[in-house]
Amino acid sequence: MTLTGSRLLAPGEPWQNWGRCEAATPLHVARPSSVDEVVEVVRFARDNGLAVKPVGAGHSFTAIAATTGIQLDIAAVEGVVAVDGNRVTLAAGTNLHQLPALLEPFGLALANMGDIDRQTVAGATSTGTHGTGGAFGGLATQIRAVTLVTADGGILRVSETENADLLPAARLGLGALGVLVDVTIECVPAFLLRAVEKPERFDDVVDTWAQRVADTDHFEFYVWPHTDTVLSKYNTRLPVTADRRPLSRFASWWEDDFMSNTVLAAKLNLGVAVPRLTPPINRFATRIVGDRAYTDLSHEVFVAPRRTRFREMEYAVPLEAVPAILREIRALIDAKGWRISFPIEVRAAAADDLWLSTASGRATGYIALHRYYREDPTEYFRTIEQIMISYDGRPHWGKMHNRDAESLRGAYPHFDDFVAVRDRLDPGRLFGNAYLERVLGA
Fold this sequence. Notes:
Structural class: alpha+beta
Number of strands: 21
Number of domains: 3
CATH class of the largest domain: Alpha Beta
Strand order of the largest sheet: 17-14-16-15-19-20-18-21
CATH topology of the largest domain: Vanillyl-alcohol Oxidase, Chain A, domain 3
């Protein structure tokens, strides 16, 4: 079957990511529904000198999925492929929000999750998506095997027993090594989380940051600029047989929907229109959000709805550097006279051994900066990025940053090992684009 004019290729159409900070117009769009069709698209691209880039939910804030060649929409390549004990093989286009229903019949859950679940499994793992917890790694650390369609049109299985030397690269591959068509994830028995959320003083939390990370299964907090208050979140793991006490429907709607989306959007729009109102609005917000406790299934606690569009930059830094960096950021906001409506998100993760993981080789703290999509984040992000770099920070691969291969090489001990795997699997850069050229080199 030829691809031109077939159901596999359609004319390209303008594409934007969720944050509305990246756009592209591919020559073609392909929507395969099977691995065989992915292979067919890749071979067509190779034979016709076109780059091919998979695209998932578009939740990366970088141009990692942008292309002027063939955009490969993997949404239809989804679902459970196989289950072997706690190991579940998922098709790459499966969205994270589908997993609770897919895993429930097997009594399983992901060991850890971030607070957004719109991404595809492939997109989330390939860019280093993570949650929080000093003893837990990012989503890619839960991978035990992957299947790639490679530049030669072949299918490559990478696992602990097949091509094992490629596993540290393939588990977090930036889409640079091939088209990910499935991943095998080590799940855990389903569990509950006891959630305690409350406002606290900035100094109290920051001064004891490392201890709170060590003492709590999943600890994170949000710093509200122009205030001395943070919103802390403590999540403790419990067996699924423990007493489940979820939020009432009204309480969930009030905090997670109305306050965190409707009211937040109104607050941000007011801040855009009248910036001088941002500090008092932030102070008011710290008095009416948070301060609740409940127990529910893990995904109901980890994940929250995020419908207000924003742009984000997140840096991974040594765990112990977080307090000093936060104090520098607060001093800089005051010195610059910036008006920052969005809180700063602070999380933690365990060290891992993935070559391009932002937590590779060290216990890690994450500091994420956000700006409303109607505001220009350039000065805020660029200036604070220099602070992050001074503390040996590593940018999240799917969030806005200005680093290039030359500067990133020194941040990752295995950077050149990854590039060597890329050279081996995709010497012609079939899966390349401008973003990968910038961060990995030509």
